[in-house]
Amino acid sequence: MRIKSITTLIATMATLLTTATVSANSNAEQVLVLLSSETQMTLADGSTYETGYYLNEFGVPADKLQKAGYDLVLATPKGNAPQVDENSVKAMYFGGNEQEMARIEKVVANLEGINDTLSLTQVIDNGLEQYSGVFIPGGHAPLIDLANNPEVGTILSHFHRQQKPTAAICHGPIALLSAQQNPGAYEQKIASGQNASATDWLYDGYRMTIFSNPEEASFEASLAGKKLRYYPAKAMAQAGGDMSFADKWQPNVVVDRELITAQNPFSDNKLADALISALRQRSQ
Q1: Burial classification of residue 169, based on how many CB atoms lie within 10 Å of its CB (0-12 exposed, 13-18 middle, 19 or more buried)
Q2: d(CA 64, CA 70)
Q3: Three-state secondary-structure class, residue 156
Q4: Radius of gyration from C-alpha coordinates of the chain
Q5: Distance CA 140, CA 81 (A)
Q6: What is the pTM of this model?
Q7: Can you list the alpha helix ranges (DSSP code H) found in 54-163?
Q8: pLDDT digits (tens, 9 = 90+) for 94-141
Q9: How far is 95 from 262, CA to CA, in rounded Å?
């Protein structure tokens, strides 16, 4: 009888603990993560370059955000599975630590929704009020479908109006260009070398950073003589961004109001820390 009572007590405590855990998780703040649906970036000569998200730029902040208690909701324009850029699966982006790289690969592989993201239409239709912040990882893929996307603009407009933390790393900040009237036309003019001006850009005059021109030139040198359609840093400056850069490959994070931008892959930890700090400050 005594053993049965103890067994019942243990079972009851286990149930209460599980319920408390589920309740805690259900109350976690949500961070929206915007990723590209695309894998083939068109170059200036019409050829393509295979790309995707950079493993550390996505995985390191995702890992830190989860450990800090935030739930991540993944979204792409098409609602498909985003692709990692294989050039980013290198230990050099993890301080030379192969084990850390493998750990982050597992973190990304285990993210809820990684193989079946929400589409941007679904995210907008479901309501943006539920999200405490938004995060845009880099890799060259955002240049394909996040820099010229009115739905991205709609999403960013919400976070801008509400002054919710808006973070982007490396090439991720290029998505900010969607927060203007007719972002596609602006991109086309930039790519064709025309004089272009952004119309009603939400981030006009904000201090920010992005993958720098010297860094982009280093990448472009790996393309066997081929050229990018345009340099992101130039496009951001021409739109009205107050650009700030560190030396090539040095960590650099710039914070202005709700906007948090990071320059390159080596800024991953600093970007994550700045985003978590901003999220916590806002929830106080």
Answers
A1: buried
A2: 9
A3: helix
A4: 20
A5: 16
A6: 0.90
A7: 55-67, 98-109, 120-126, 142-145, 150-161
A8: 999 999 999 999 999 999 999 999 999 999 999 999 999 999 999 999
A9: 18
